Amino acid sequence: MPFKKLHADIKEILESLEITIPTPFQSKSIPVIKSGANIYCTAPKDSGKTTTLVLTTLHKLKCQQVGVAPRALVLVENSEKALALHDEFIKLSKYDAVRVYACDDREHIDLLKSEIFEGVDILIATPKTVNKLLLLEGLNTTQLKIFNIDDAEFLVDKTAYAAVMAITQSIHKCQYVLYSEKMNPMLKRFEDYFMQFAKVVSVK
């Protein structure tokens, strides 16, 4: 059972929310993500992809605060998705267990930069914002352990795609996990860059 092998804090939260049975996608994907490989995760809507992203990221960080630089990065399509995902992390983690920060594109970049400098474990943002932070030396990627892209279909946009390529070039070693409803040639192309030796977990 994938949930039984997660960090004790996560199991406690899941039990309190009465989430006991993993979806078929979660049963298939969680053990592979925990292995540390680069992975393409494809499954239809409402298969449990977002919950999987949250649970495996919390597990990777051992549900604890460490240092000031982000150890997990999650790219999303827009600020609304960033804020919604932030709420999911808060719901599935113990109070103050990890520091989760969602970048709102409507805020000034200097404000985002100063708040990130105060210490963040999980950073959620759009590719455009992360790229801008890197250019302004407002983001330290040296401690990253896991890099997720949620609903990666939005990367068909050339600007977002180019931003992801630029971001990944600044990262030396990290696990990459991409979530989407379907695999497409644009996502497959990442294998030549940062998704080397990637596994595919697919549920239809």
TrEMBL record:
- Where the record annotates domain Helicase ATP-binding, the positions are 30-201
Where does the source fall among the domains of life?
Answer: Bacteria
One GO MF annotation is: ATP binding
Matching entries from SUPFAM superfamilies are given as:
P-loop containing nucleoside triphosphate hydrolases
The cross-references to SMART domains, in alphabetical order and at most eight, read: DEXDc
Query: Which terms are listed as keywords in the entry?
Result: ATP-binding, Helicase, Hydrolase, Nucleotide-binding
Q: What is this protein called?
A: DEAD/DEAH box helicase
Q: Which organism is it from?
A: Polaribacter butkevichii
